[in-house]
Amino acid sequence: MTENQPVDTPTSMTRSILDSIKGFVGKILSSWKVRIALLGIVLLGGGIFAFFYQHIVAELGMKMWTNSSGARPIECVLKDSNNDNYVSCSALLGDQVVPLECSSSLFNLGCRVNYGSAVPNVKASRGN
């Protein structure tokens, strides 16, 4: 081996691989059809995320609430139906279904028990 011969070092090989990848990606992205398709995918993904955002945040809050209360999470609805920034959820505490309102905002994570829709505990009276 002579001193004038170039030696392939790991860094020069890595650079050549990265340069070939950049060239390949550059060729793909130079097509307007690919750019439009990627833009459509990004917009569709953003729309899907925006649609499910309230549900995702409410389920996160419900899981936090059920972890601290010892309950089991059941489910949350998809959207805030009355625009009060809370999504209706439910959890199972013992053998009781607990109606919850979970926040749809990341700045107010958590849930509150919705006593307004709870079934009253009525004891059956025995014959007089």
Description:
- The protein has a 4-stranded antiparallel beta sheet with strand order 1-2-3-4, covered by helices on one side.
- It is α+β, with helices and mostly antiparallel strands and 128 residues long.
- Strand 3 and strand 4 (111-113) form a beta hairpin.
- It is 45% helix and 19% strand.
- It has 2 helices and 4 strands; from the N terminus they run H-H-E-E-E-E.
Which radius of gyration do the C-alpha atoms yield? Answer: 28 Å
Order of helices and strands: HHEEEE
In angstroms, what separates the terminal alpha carbons? 111 Å
Number of helices: 2
In short:
This protein has helices at 10-29, 32-69; strands at 72-76, 86-93, 96-103, 111-113.
Task: Tag the structure with descriptive keywords.
128 residues; alpha+beta; four-stranded antiparallel beta sheet; 19% strand
Write the layout of secondary structure elements.
Elements: H1 10-29, H2 32-69, E1 72-76, E2 86-93, E3 96-103, E4 111-113
